[in-house]
From TrEMBL:
The keyword Signal applies. Residues 29-186 form the Fimbrial-type adhesion domain. It comes from Hafnia alvei. It comes from the Bacteria. It holds the Pfam family Fimbrial. InterPro entries: Adhesion_dom_fimbrial (IPR000259), Adhesion_dom_fimbrial_sf (IPR036937), Adhesion_dom_sf (IPR008966), Bact_Fimbrial_Adh_Pro (IPR050263). GO terms for cellular component: pilus. Belongs to the fimbrial protein family. The lineage of its organism: Bacteria, Pseudomonadati, Pseudomonadota, Gammaproteobacteria, Enterobacterales. GO terms for biological process: cell adhesion involved in single-species biofilm formation. This is Major type 1 subunit fimbrin (Pilin).
Length: 186
């Protein structure tokens, strides 16, 4: 009987050692996050919105600072909590760069062609200007001024305007841009 116990202990020790080596750590995963009071929900249509700036004649964009007609767009917020008082928005993107004798403007978003590249048939010396409802220019990757929100509102909108602005003599071509936005609630 003691031989059986000894054999059983040896077998258990070997099995334990084998299972330990089978469970060796090869890496680690960190889970992060926090539980928060959801400030507001961005409406589904606002999550992927198209703003058509239209076809603008190059003759209208022949000098630095020339602007096209503004087009209004909005980001709709739903079910804001009681703790939300204001929000600022950051539109991501690259700064438009002038070519030739163009004049730099760090508030303009770079344009590109339909495939997302800055080559091919992309217009040059033009960028996209975005302003808030008070007319303040929003620069790429910079937070806007805080905009007042109504706590507990079922829906409310943040309004913006977009238009082309020339950095110099604009050349013809596609003038598209895509921007991701982030909202910080206060």
């Amino acid at each position: 009987m003691s031989t059986n116990k000894t054999a059983l202990l040896i077998a258990l020790s070997l099995a334990s050692a084998a299972s330990t080596s089978a469970m060796a750590a090869d890496g680690k995963i960190n889970f992060t996050g926090k539980i928060t009071d959801a400030p507001c929900t961005v409406s589904i249509p606002s999550q992927n919105r198209d703003v058509t700036l239209g076809n603008v004649p190059s003759s209208q964009m022949a000098t630095a600072g020339a602007k096209s007609e503004s087009k209004q767009f909005q980001v709709d917020l739903l079910n804001c909590s009681a703790t939300v008082k204001s929000a600022s928005i950051t539109f991501g993107g690259s700064v438009a760069t002038p070519s030739g004798a163009g004049v730099a403007d760090p508030t303009l978003f770079a344009v590109n062609s339909p495939d997302g590249s800055a080559t091919g048939t992309t217009a040059s010396n033009v960028g996209i200007e975005i302003s808030d409802s008070a007319g303040a220019m929003l620069s790429p990757n910079k937070a806007s001024a805080a905009m007042t929100l109504t706590p507990k509102a079922a829906s409310q909108s943040l309004y913006f305007n977009a238009r082309y602005k020339s950095l110099g003599t604009a050349t013809t071509g596609d003038a598209n841009a895509t921007t991701d936005f982030t909202i910080a609630y206060q």
